[in-house]
Amino acid sequence: MVMYNFLDSFPADKPLLSDGQINLDRAALQARVDDVSIALNARHAPRAPVAILADNSPEWLVIDLATQALGLTLVPLPLFFTPAQWAHVLQQTGAQALFCANPASAAALGFARVVPYHGSLVLCESTGVATAPSLDGVQKITFTSGTTASPKGVCLSGDQQWEVANALRLGVEPLALERHLCLLPFAVLLENIAGPYTALLSGATTFCPPLAETGLAGASQFDPHRCIAAIEKYQAHSIILLPQMLQAIVMASTDHDPRLSSLRFVAVGGARTPPQLLAAAQARGIPVFEGYGLSECASVVALNLPGAQRSGSVGRPLSHRHLRIASDGEIEVRGNHAHYLGATSTPSEWLSTGDLGHRDADGFLYIDGRKKDILITGFGRNVSPEWPEALLLGSGVIAQALVLGDSMPYLSALIVPAAAGIRPAQLQQAVDHVNSALPDYAQIRRWAAVPPFTPANGEATANGRPRRAAIQERHATLIASLYVTEQPQ
Fold this sequence. Notes:
Shape: globular
Distance between the termini: 66 Å
Oligomer: single chain
Largest sheet: 5 strands, mixed
CATH superfamily of the largest domain: ANL, N-terminal domain
């Protein structure tokens, strides 16, 4: 099968997967896949979907590969989902078994029967009978948001995922990457496909220690010093970051930091990255490349690459993708995209992304904002909030920002400071600097500091994109005060 094509390219004694203690070479990986396959076939419902709720590890990827070998559907459960969200996903997908760290966690979700299995995780199956939707050809169901009671499932085939990984392999081939360090959860499609899958096809070793070792704790806590230490320890050639992680690493590192000297390719995506942040990272000597993707397209759609990079863009489309810009500016993608769980209609040839953008004469793609998020001020001016937001995030003292002002006389913003010690005066100075680069109708007249937007509190997606409706609902009283109290000078 396609996912095992990489095995023949690996020397017999070279580790494919490692967590720093356990190393799986070609023979060991095949043996572990066989062990998982035997356990999955021993279930009472051997063809039913199987879920996984676990930290990053070689075992996670072994299970992923085993389900592909058996033609089964895998349902990754993000650790930052609530128990109610896990239950919703399990019910919607008809999963009859669950890999997790301990039987008690599985039993709490209705998976009380332990299946004989020897690994770092336990395999438990449901004692009841679930009705599974039609999942012919579906290898993985990824959920696009963990921030509502009913996350939406995207159904992907194995070929769709490996097609993206192979296009990425071709793009990074000149860099001869040999060591990829996983920093994002495998339940996040971006890391799953652009990380291990691409590394395996490239002949590189995938290092996947527990996320705590690489600096990620919970849904939003990130320790850049621990991350930098992990990059140095594993001498990583490539990593994948969200914009907030990149900002923290830039602030925690020095110019041409020797601890980061092994890096050859740092991909950043999941949400829009401020150009100033990219410039600051590059000035530090960090080889950062911004990209753009969608779960519906099995993650990456476009990516800046060595020798094909343009500032301000998210790169050119991958080799197997075709893009066009609709008359209203919306980006549309053609090429083997996924369907939603439970969808009754066949996806159209062109996928409407909901993102606004444009392309230059050389084919580089630029993201101009979300179609549904365009603000129309009380004076009739159209403003994409991502424009001033990107400038605010590029200030170095602001970690997250949400610009508001639909039907209002001026724009305001909710601001998350980049560190606990940042004073209001520093934030105001950053806002003033941003305003100096904006026309009057797009300037931020008032702002308020708020706690971070995270998947755990329902205010961000797994990739860090703010969920505007949830944030506005949570902070409705505060937002109202920005328009009814002291008026701007």
